[in-house]
Specification:
By secondary structure, the chain is mainly beta. It has helices spanning 78-84, 160-165, and strands spanning 9-10, 17-18, 47-50, 57-60, 85-86, 118-121, 127-136, 139-149, 157-159, 175-182, 185-198, 201-210, 218-221, 230-235, 240-245, 253-254, 266-267, 270-271, 300-301. The strands form five sheets. Strands 3, 4, 7, 8, 9, 10, 11, 12 and 13 form a nine-stranded mixed β-sheet that branches. Strands 5-6-15-14 form a four-stranded antiparallel β-sheet. Strands 1-2 form a two-stranded antiparallel ribbon.
């Protein structure tokens, strides 16, 4: 199925999204009914999970369900993420961000949510399980898919079909021209800001969606919006990839709170993490364009 539509039919047995003109489920589950399995809004579900092997679209109802593709038994959604996750044999005894003491083998800091260290396996190419999420008028829409970690890509690129599932209107979106997808053809990408989830940790980033981008089970994770947010290491011999949250900006704090403009407290090791007056986080974050959010010239200190 190239792109789900609001008229597609959801199999009541395996949750596969079938084209609206199909009578029987593609997975061989039996006859499809028009109602109540017809999709009224893609945002009415917890999310859509794309099989990383066959690219089938499945309804994903809960983060706790251990759903697998009926065709090839490939894990889907959060189950897909857990299936590729390897234990961390050694990591810092404290969070690099908030300095709180952590238990050995911690993936995400349980105080501030910082991504400490992830080890993920892959088969042929460095594909990792990710999710794209967007909040619309009817709630959150989410797509669980795969991301090809590609240091040669300038930006994040995903097919326009995923933008449709996320109910993103690309009509007036900023565009970029790029090549390499179709020989001798310049393609157009439409920019949108979405949440990129690794596990359940969300990072706001920019994605270019294109109708000419034909990666059926996900998209490309490129320099701007991914590599500038994380430290990536490949172990090609063992087909493993390590992801750590970027540390270049960790020690930067605002001199003046970006919310209430109160001067922040300076300690021997640097500025504090939170404003003493209003509680705002004082960590300077990197935006999707590589700039510093809420920054004022001369008012940030390393």
């Amino acid at each position: 199925m190239q792109q789900p539509t609001l008229g597609c039919k959801v199999c009541s047995v395996c949750d596969l999204l079938n084209p609206d003109d199909y009578t029987y489920c593609e997975n061989g589950c039996g006859q499809l009914t028009a109602l109540p399995s017809t999709v009224q809004s893609l945002a009415s579900f917890r999310g859509i999970a794309i099989c990383p092997t066959c690219a089938g679209y499945y309804v994903h109802r809960s983060a706790r369900e251990t759903k697998v593709c009926k065709r090839d038994q490939t894990p889907l959604g959060m189950h897909h993420f857990r299936s590729q996750l390897l234990p961390v044999l050694s990591n810092p005894s404290s969070c690099p961000n908030c300095q709180e003491t952590l238990y050995p083998g911690t993936f995400f800091c349980y105080y501030c949510g910082y991504l400490v260290e992830l080890h993920l396996t892959y088969t042929n190419e460095p594909l990792i399980p990710v999710s794209l999420r967007r909040k619309g008028e009817k709630g959150y829409s989410m797509v669980h898919c795969s991301g090809l970690v590609d240091g040669g890509a300038s930006f994040n690129f995903f097919p326009a079909s995923i933008a449709y599932v996320l109910e993103i209107d690309l009509t007036n979106a900023p565009t970029i021209s790029f090549g390499g997808v179709i020989p001798n053809v310049t393609s157009i990408g439409y920019k949108a800001v979405v949440d990129l989830l690794i596990g359940s940790r969300a990072y706001e980033t920019s994605v270019y969606f294109s109708p000419n981008f034909f990666m059926s089970n996900g998209g490309l994770l490129g320099q701007t919006g991914f590599f500038d947010r994380f430290t990536i290491n490949y172990d090609r011999a063992n087909k493993q990839i390590t992801i750590k949250e970027g540390t270049a900006l960790l020690e930067e704090r605002y001199i003046f709170c970006p919310v209430c403009y109160t001067e922040t407290v300076s300690l021997a090791k640097g500025r504090t993490n939170f404003c003493w007056y209003c509680g705002c986080s004082l960590k300077i974050h990197q935006t999707i364009l590589g700039n510093l959010t809420n920054g004022y010239p001369g008012e940030k200190q390393k």
